[in-house]
Amino acid sequence: MSCRCYIVPPHLFRAIAQSPLNPEHVRKAAEASLAAHDHISAARQERTWKILQEKKSNRNARVQASPFVPESLLQRLSASDAVDEASRTRAKRDLRHLQGLMGRAKQVGADAKGTQEAASRTVAHNNVYNASNTWDDEKLPGRLERAQGEPPAKDLDVNKAYDNVGHVLRFYEQHFGWKSIDNQNAPVTCSVHFGEHYGNAFWSPETMQMVFGDGNMLLCNFTGCVDVIGHELAHAVTDNTSPLDYSDQAGALNEHISDVFGIMAKQQVENETSEEADWLIGEDCLLPDVKGVAFRSMKEPGKAYDDERFGKDPQVDSFAQWEAIAEDRGGVHIFSGIPNKAFYLSAVAFGGYSWEIAGKIWWRAMNCGKVPPRCTFQQFADITVECAEELFDVEAAKLVRQAWNTVGVIRGI
Q1: Taking a C-beta distance cutoff of 8 angstroms, is the pair 106, 114 a contact?
Q2: Burial class for 246, CB neighbours closer than 10 Å (0-12, 13-18, 19+)
Q3: 3-state DSSP call for residue 221?
Q4: From the candidates 232, 255, 283, 300, which is the catalytic residue?
Q5: Largest CA distance in the chain
Q6: Catalytic residue among 11, 37, 175, 333, which?
Q7: What is the SS3 assignment for 13-34?
Q8: Is 0.90 topped by the overall pTM?
Q9: Start and end of every Peptidase M4 C-terminal domain (predicted)?
């Protein structure tokens, strides 16, 4: 089963809620976040199966140019007093263009080239809204603060979210030729200032947008971390390439893919090679007095933090440590450390920038049509080995196989 993806995993909130060292208001906030996580867990499940059913029924049928673009967003922007006349004019133009695309059904395969050419003439809209500290999902996205192409706003979080979404979108297009989250230039919507001192960020499959809390005395700066934004947007990309169920090994792979593409976007922004990078996810989200370096370490799963208020990082880095558990939807945030370590080992073995070889292999795996919704670690490992040989050569395949062998997924090399 699937759910909304939160950058802060449930086991971390559970540890915060149970630690007597945390103030009562922090423990209660953690409990509320944990309850919300469980309450909305069916949303991604429903969306994943809907996507799969649509793909099955539309193989030989007509499809829309972009199934995710919210026309209402552009309609609001075209009439908003919060932007200047030039911005409203652009919104009206884009709305007409969008409605034209939606009205022209494309035949899969025959018109694929024409659809790609149309997409190449547009740019994905990156719009950031202010949720004004509401807890009500139905009030999202909130008040528009910065639309695509506009100058910086007065709100620092708005600008950080806008800039980092831009970095991630450019990363996908530059290295994989992929436009926005669906390869059809769907708008990317973000809402900042969600809730009161809400210490989390998440991708909402119901509203197709990112949502950021302001943080609290332990967790903060979600808008300022490009790897966090890259992680969350990658869940939407996964839905549009090889939708993975969000439980057990498939769910851990879903989390893994998001960590992989989030960390690569971060490494590009920081211009770091695989050897130079720290391979930390969310390193700027922990406050200085926390005994830890990040939410997760792809290089050393299980060693990202060890704080009395948080507990110890529960991630594992070997398939020998995998077990069937009930919490965290089968341990999707715990066992993702296993494939994370495999990708890290592959990238370092190839050398250079992570997206040059290892990233291309993982991207091909997600787009080759061989990844099933309930994919296992073994299946995914085999697919990456095959893709390595198809894209590069036998030696590349051996390096990838060696990485999976090191974490215990593939036996023998």
Answers
A1: yes
A2: buried
A3: coil
A4: 232
A5: 64
A6: 333
A7: HHHHHHCCCCCHHHHHHHHHHH
A8: no
A9: 243-409
CB atoms near residue 86 (< 10 Å): 10
Q: What is the pLDDT of residue 202?
A: 86
Determine the Cα–Cα distance for residues 109 and 104; give it in Å rounded to an integer.
15
Is 232 an active-site residue? yes
On the question of a cis peptide bond just before residue 141, with omega within 30 degrees of 0, the verdict is yes
Residue type at 102? M
First-to-last C-alpha distance (Å) of the chain: 33
pLDDT, averaged in runs of 10, over the chain (413 residues): 62 78 79 61 52 52 27 45 53 46 35 38 79 90 95 97 97 97 94 89 84 86 95 94 95 96 98 98 86 93 89 94 92 96 98 98 97 97 98 98 97 73
Q: How far apart are CA 333 and CA 411, in angstroms?
A: 24
Token pair of 329, please? Answer: 């939807």
β-bridge pairing 201-204 and 296-297: unpaired
Residue 167 falls in the annotated catalytic set: no
Q: What are phi and psi of 199, to 5 degrees?
A: -95, 60
Domains and CATH numbers, the chain: 248-406 (1.10.390.10)
Sign of CA dihedral 151, 157, 161, 164: positive
* DSSP state at residue 3: -
**Eight-class DSSP state of 305:** B
